[in-house]
Amino acid sequence: MTPRPNNQAYNANENTLALESFLPYRLARAAEMVSRQFAANYRQRYGLSRPEWRTLATIGQYEQVTATEICAHSSMHKTKVSRAIRALEQRNWINREPDTQDRRIEHISLTREGSRHYRDLVRLARDYEVQLLQTLGSSGAGKLEDGLTAVESRLSGW
């Protein structure tokens, strides 16, 4: 049996939809609010844009990546990634090394300074995540994690 949405998005008039109650919209809106609020933290401290933060986080997580890998991991368009890479390079936070086999490919890694700032941003991110999880409580956090995992698993096959 398919569960029927238990919200106000569906009403007696089948030709209308209460967007603010529609689950995909609520997920997108919640993600945007969380992202915007966290962005205020790293923007205030470092002046980073969202693409710069996501690019830095991907490089820091994997230590050495290509721009194509950053695009795939972060779900950002190559233009945004390219601009973020240039901005991080201007800050001296990353190194770019050409591939020995294919000169079109560059391997990107953090500089010593970039690593120092990345570690600080990791602490900032973890602190922010703890605050969010405390808002949900342990039961709510577990349910959210399970629900997101189910949605991501289901949609990754589409």
UniProtKB/TrEMBL annotation:
The keyword Ribonucleoprotein does not apply. InterPro entries: HTH_MarR-typ, Metal_resp_HTH_trans_reg, WH-like_DNA-bd_sf, WH_DNA-bd_sf. Signal peptide: none annotated. Pfam families: MarR. One of its GO terms (molecular function) is DNA-binding transcription factor activity. Residues 20-153 form the HTH marR-type domain. Keywords: DNA-binding, Transcription, Transcription regulation. The keyword Chaperone does not apply. PROSITE patterns: HTH_MARR_2. This is Transcriptional regulator. It comes from Hoeflea phototrophica (strain DSM 17068 / NCIMB 14078 / DFL-43).
